[in-house]
């Protein structure tokens, strides 16, 4: 299949949606954030965005959901753009091999998170952004509005409040990092902005458009350069090796693309230079990744042959 054949790609998305729709809902919704626990695991949407912003989609591809850890990609992009290479003195670039909220690994490695996509790593990135602006979550929201072409997108305050009320594990990660000297701002301040960035509400269409900044090798939607090609390459590399936490190997094996998941059921995936995908379905596997989303992306790369491998 030609990789830019819109009609053929749309046909592929429709077949995937029909297959997923016939299957019994699988997985369990995120139960540790009460608002997310209300989601219907049978819901499904999938979108594809070309580098020029054209999008196609199926299912509930225009339904908004809180993007949760997909936001970590955009936080990393903004930190690299505004703070530069110094970030890598505070957070590593290796797969964790452990759950995304592991305290044991963080203590073993003396407060240096293994990568920017586990929760401790995302807190370090947020802390780094606080050296650039006192409102990093608003910086991200405004960036996402511009890149997605959706000036009305905003935080889901109900999700943010629910997450903030059940944040003990992330607070423990923050305090442990502060004890090792790897957090410069007050833990409550860092947690506030981290929770709000996770509560940004977007649709599959909007996530796919916003993700174009890494698909286009660092160019923004308006054509201006935000990241160097080298930094964009590195963001994609970390998405491939770390974006699905302790299931990163399984994601590479089945999907074969840089990707980033979130516990609300969203997954963003990138075919560098070609297009960005976003799929959403709230039923999760035991590692916190959407079951239907993984299946859909697996089917997509198998049918189209667009895996990076």
Short descriptors:
alpha+beta, glutaminase activity, Beta-lactamase, two-stranded antiparallel ribbon, acetylation, 309 residues, 45% helix, single chain, 13 helices, globular, five-stranded antiparallel beta sheet
Structural commentary:
InterPro entries: Beta-lactam/transpept-like (IPR012338), Glutaminase (IPR015868). It catalyses: L-glutamine + H2O = L-glutamate + NH4(+). The structure is a single chain. By secondary structure, the chain is of the alpha+beta class. The chain has one domain (6-304): DD-peptidase/beta-lactamase superfamily (Beta-lactamase), CATH 3.40.710. Helix content is 45%, strand content 9%. It is built from 13 helices and 7 strands. It has helices at residues 6-22, 71-83, 103-108, 119-129, 136-148, 157-164, 168-179, 187-198, 204-210, 212-215, 229-242, 248-254, 291-304, and strands at residues 45-49, 55-59, 65-66, 201-202, 259-261, 266-271, 275-280. The strands form 2 sheets. The protein has a 5-stranded antiparallel sheet with strand order 2-1-7-6-5. It has a two-stranded antiparallel sheet with strand order 3-4. Helix 6 (157-164) packs across helix 8 and helix 7 (168-179) packs across helix 8. The chain is globular. The protein starts with 5 loop residues before the first helix and ends in a 5-residue tail after the last helix.
């Amino acid at each position: 299949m030609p990789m830019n054949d819109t009609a053929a790609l749309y046909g592929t998305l429709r077949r995937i949606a029909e297959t997923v729709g016939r299957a019994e809902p699988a997985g369990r919704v995120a139960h540790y954030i009460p608002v997310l626990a209300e989601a219907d695991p049978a819901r499904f949407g999938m979108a594809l965005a070309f580098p020029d912003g054209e999008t196609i989609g199926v299912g509930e591809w225009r339904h908004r959901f809180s993007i949760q850890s997909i936001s970590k990609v955009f936080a990393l992009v903004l930190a690299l753009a505004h703070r530069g290479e110094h970030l890598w003195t505070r957070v590593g670039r290796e797969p964790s091999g452990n759950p995304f909220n592991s305290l044991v690994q963080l203590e073993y490695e003396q407060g240096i998170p293994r990568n920017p996509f586990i929760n401790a790593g995302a807190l370090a990135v947020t802390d780094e952004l606080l050296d650039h602006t006192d409102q990093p979550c608003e910086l991200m929201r405004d960036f996402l509005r511009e890149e997605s072409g959706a000036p009305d997108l905003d935080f889901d305050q109900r999700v943010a409040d629910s997450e903030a009320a059940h944040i003990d594990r992330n607070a423990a990660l923050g305090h442990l990092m502060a004890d090792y000297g790897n957090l410069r701002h007050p833990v409550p301040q860092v947690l506030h902005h981290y929770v709000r960035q996770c509560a940004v509400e977007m649709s599959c269409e909007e996530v796919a458009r916003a993700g174009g900044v890494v698909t286009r090798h660092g160019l923004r939607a308006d054509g201006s350069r935000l990241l160097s090609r080298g930094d964009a390459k590195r963001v994609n590399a970390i998405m491939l090796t770390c974006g699905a936490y302790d299931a990163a190997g399984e994601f590479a094996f089945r999907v074969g693309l840089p990707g980033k998941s979130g516990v609300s059921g969203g997954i963003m995936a990138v075919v560098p230079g070609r297009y960005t995908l976003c799929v959403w379905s709230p039923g999760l596997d035991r590692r916190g990744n959407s079951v239907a989303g993984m299946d859909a992306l697996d089917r997509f790369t198998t049918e189209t042959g667009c895996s990076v491998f």
